[in-house]
Amino acid sequence: MTISRKASSRPRLAALLFRLGRGARSLLRARWPDGVTMRQIRAIDLAPGRPLLICDVDEVTLHFIRGFEAWLAEQDLYLAPDSWSIEGNVRRMKDGKALSTPVVRALVERFFKERIHDLDPIAGAAESLADLEQAGAQIVLLTNLPHAYHEPRRRNLLRHGFPWPLVTNSGPKGPAVRALAAKVQAPCAFIDDHAEFLESAGRHVPSAGLVHFLHDARFARHAACPAHPHVRVHDWRAAHAHVSHLLGRPQKVARQVRPAARR
């Protein structure tokens, strides 16, 4: 999903969750995350010789859309699955009229303030990550979210069995993936639901195995495919299998895997 971005001194709303708009694509060439993100990454103790899985949070480990839709219903609103976008798709129940971008921005910000601590886990996510860790992988959770929400998000994750280090980020994820991958000399995989973030990771860490996770079929049909070689999965059973393979032979798999057909 995407939402447009205006110049502002406050954190971009896109940093809450959604992929970059076209006007921000040049940021894909950025080399390093912001200072707060870098401090979080430096604080993570990773074993150089063990493989690394970097995993997104919203719509990969936690149900953002489900929580957002339930909250919208309380406001007599709904989210129409008409495109991979928030803009134009938050509508009034009484007449189906789409809300303006500024109103949608304010709603999303309100939702995070009120419900970020109370999102449900996606089936199989915690169990799969725990199994991958047991098999030798190191796991870091990487979420595009204003840094002020780091602690409530961490508590939400802990409550649902996600004890792994959490990094909050803004903008493209490639620089953060690069900084994390630089801490190990072992295979690295990155799983996310946004094509732009996978594309950014592929630019910064060409050897990384990329997994495009799209479990909500309503929106998956609108999702773009990253240009870099990747696999697309729709549940954690498939994600577990592919990540296991990628962490064993990431460079070889990255050359061989081709995008699956869109749903």
Number of helices: 10
C-alpha end-to-end distance:
15 Å
| Largest sheet properties | 6 strands, parallel
Note the beta-strand portion. Answer: 5-15%
Q: Which radius of gyration do the C-alpha atoms yield? A: 17 Å
Q: Structural class of the helix and strand makeup?
A: alpha/beta
Low-confidence stretches: 2-29, 249-263
> How many DSSP E strands?
8
* Residues in helices, as a percent range: 25-40%
Q: What spatial order of strands do you see in the largest sheet? A: 5-4-1-6-7-8
Query: What's the overall geometry?
Result: globular
How confident overall, as mean pLDDT? Answer: 83
The SSE string, one letter per element, is HEHEEHHEHEHEHEHEHH
Keyword list:
two-stranded antiparallel sheet, six-stranded parallel sheet, alpha/beta, disordered C terminus, 8 strands, 263 residues, disordered N terminus
